[in-house]
Amino acid sequence: MRGIPNNPVRCLGCNRRRACAADQLCHSCRMSAKPNPRKRYVWTTELEAMLVSAYRRALTRRELSTSLTALQLRSGFTRVVILERAVQLRLSFSRRRPWAPEEIALLESLAGSYSPASISRRLKRTFASVKAKLKQLQISARVTEGYSQTDLAELLGASPVSIRRWGRIGWLPVVNGRISEAAVVKFLRLHPHEYQLRRVDEAWFKGLLFPAFNSAEVGPISVAQPASTVAATPINSRAALRFSIVKPPLPPGSRTARSDHSGPRRPG
User: For a designed S-S bond to 54, which of 28, 67, 163, 258 qualifies (C-beta 3.0 to 4.6 A apart)?
Assistant: First the structure.
């Protein structure tokens, strides 16, 4: 029953007069007493006693790790859940090392070029600490240099299976989860039989192999140019100029301007 019944009684849980006479519980106390089927980790008295015993009996960090691993295998809980429960029971206290300005500067310079796992190893910090600091500084943790395997599959028009196979062979080596641009250029030049040009992104392909493609500026072609300019133009450019030169109109009496149907043709 939801809400206050017509003849409420005092609730056994919250002691408010809004309970049902059948079970003497209000709606909120009734719902909180039901087990949550979506809750994956339920701590029992036995499991908490094992956790307390593991922390009190351990003399070294290695012994504590062994005991927590045994508890993890018996309960089926993750390591993070067990450590969080230890903090809630005041068995463990996390002593955080503050970030130095030099570490923050190094983090900002490495972000975008290296993965958070590589940065954490270089700074000798945990992965969670690096991720939290990047979020605090509002810096994206995604590596932007090079290409991911998904990006290359889309640009080359190939399947992800082929991209992974080329990586295992060594044609597209993956470093920190990314494939460098130099490796992609080398692959395109040495293995043209592995991809099909009709499926490749044309603009990306030309800009990668021909750097002048992105920086080339094509100026407008003039409508009319003097004869001296045409004579001085190189042979390769005359084909483009012939479409832009406007020829002067022919006089009415010229032979070219006459119509073919103006009269009967004279026999040759």
Answer: 67
